[in-house]
Structure formats: C-alpha cells, structure tokens
UniProtKB/TrEMBL annotation:
This protein's name: IclR family transcriptional regulator
Keyword Iron-sulfur annotated: no
The IclR-ED domain, residue ranges: 76-233
Annotated HTH iclR-type domain residues: 14-75
Keywords, sorted A to Z: DNA-binding, Transcription, Transcription regulation
Domain of life: Bacteria
Keyword Transcription regulation attached: yes
Organism from which the protein derives: Bordetella petrii
Pfam family for this entry, one: IclR_C
Transmembrane parts of this sequence: none
Length: 249
C-alpha cells in the first residue's frame, strides 16, 4: 500500500476529504483555471495524489478538465451555493448577534435593510436601560437620516460606485435622525459582496462620548464581521480595519 493510501486508511478516509477540499481551496478570486503544476504548488501535494483526487472531483462535477489540460471549478459548487443561500434565514443568525451586542454595550441594537428611499428595521433588541432609543421592528426611517441609512447608501453599489465607498467600515451620526440620539452602524455582506443590511447600535448621544465610541465601534465591527461570515460573505474589510490602529471615524 502506498504512503498516501495508507494514510487515508488510517484516518478513515478523512485525510482524502481534506486533500480534496485543499484542491478546491487552491482556487482564488480571479482564477479562470489552474494547471496541475500550479495546483501542486499551492497545495504542496504530489501530482500523483492530486490526479487521483481530481478524477473523483471531475466525476462529481466539482472540477472541470479543460481541453488545454488545465482545471476549473465545476457546476456542482454553484449548485451547493444555491442550496446554501436558499436555506439561509436571517432570523436564524441576526437576533443572536443583536443580543450579544446589547449585552456588550447596553445600548439598543438593530438590523436594517433598504426599502426604496427608506430603511426598515427588520430586527431589534432594546437596551436594558430605562433611557434608550425607541425604535421598533418594522419601523420605516428615511434612508438619508442616521448611521444605518448612510451605511445602506454608502455600501450599495447601485447608489454609490465602489470606488467612492468609504474606506472605514462604519459610520457614526449624532442627532441626525432624532435630537440627542446617536448611532454607529456597519455593513453586513453576503456572497459576492452583496449588501445584506446594516447593523447598528443606538442610544442617547450623551452615552456616545469620544471616550466610549472606540470600544463600541470595535464590538460593532466584530459583530458585523461575524454576521457577514455566517451569511456566507467576505469579512476581509473588517479584518483589515482591525489589523491597523485607526481613530474613530
């Protein structure tokens, strides 16, 4: 028995699955196809092992072999992606994120989506404090008022061309929607950087002081990144922002 097949047998087949996934993960954004040499370089596996796995992946339509001998991702991945998106329910993922934000900040947390020239509050968890921002699930608010509305404008490519989108992944407003109410909001993305909504925390402006805003923004961005990943999106914009030391915007 060869070393590779012996390893697979000892691992109960798990090693073979990991290698097959490594081949699929070798493809990156912008790759139309990959040669066998490039797959071997990226996966650090023997070509003989790769060819055995490729035969099964091609058979199952996960990989397509082109006439020039290179390989590209197959239609089965698109099929699985469609199943994933159709099964994905916002109400399975958004409320837990909002509850966590409220627990961490003691301010109200909301999730908004765009509806024409307005934004609608799809999910809301109130602050435990007696003095708080009073917004309810289902409320319609003008799109151009408040941090969440500005996020929905700034990160929607149909409203703001991507080159003009803000570099920072959050927006702060004070007294814009209602006097003495402040909010911090961040975008939430799905697959292919599709904007799914805006995640926001809001409350009395007096509690959004320059000293407290950085910690609030950090928790909000962590929640937006978590929700983006849960919805199948790319959270790189949040990770890149966290990796640098920046002032609150």
């Amino acid at each position: 028995m060869s070393e590779a097949s012996d390893s697979d047998a000892k691992a109960g087949g798990v090693a073979a699955v990991e290698r097959a996934i490594a081949i699929l993960n070798a493809f990156r954004a912008g790759d139309s196809s990959l040669s066998l040499n490039e797959i071997a370089r990226r996966t650090k596996m023997y070509k003989s092992t790769i060819l055995r796995l490729l035969a099964t992946l091609v058979q199952e339509h996960c990989i397509v072999r082109l006439d020039d001998g290179s390989y590209q991702l197959g239609s089965m991945l698109l099929h699985w992606g469609g199943l994933y998106q159709s099964a994905l329910r916002l109400d399975d993922h958004v409320p837990p994120i909002l509850r966590r934000l409220v627990q961490e900040t003691e301010e109200g947390a909301s999730f908004f989506t765009r509806e024409g020239n307005h934004r609608v509050c799809l999910f809301r968890v109130d602050s435990p404090r007696s003095i708080r921002d009073h917004i309810r699930t289902g409320d319609l608010v003008p799109l151009d008022k408040g941090a969440a509305g500005r996020i929905l404008i700034a990160f929607d490519p149909t409203l703001t061309p991507p080159p003009q989108a803000p570099a920072q992944p959050y927006i702060i407003t004070i007294g814009e929607r209602e006097p003495d109410i402040a909010a911090i909001a961040a975008p939430v993305f799905g697959p292919q950087r599709n904007l799914r909504g805006a995640l926001a925390i809001s409350g009395p402006a007096a509690r959004f002081s320059p000293e407290l805003i950085p910690a609030m923004a950090t928790r909000l961005l962590a929640a937006a990144a978590d929700l983006t990943r849960r919805l199948g999106g790319d959270a790189t914009i949040f990770d890149d922002w966290h990796s640098t030391d920046r002032p609150a915007a």
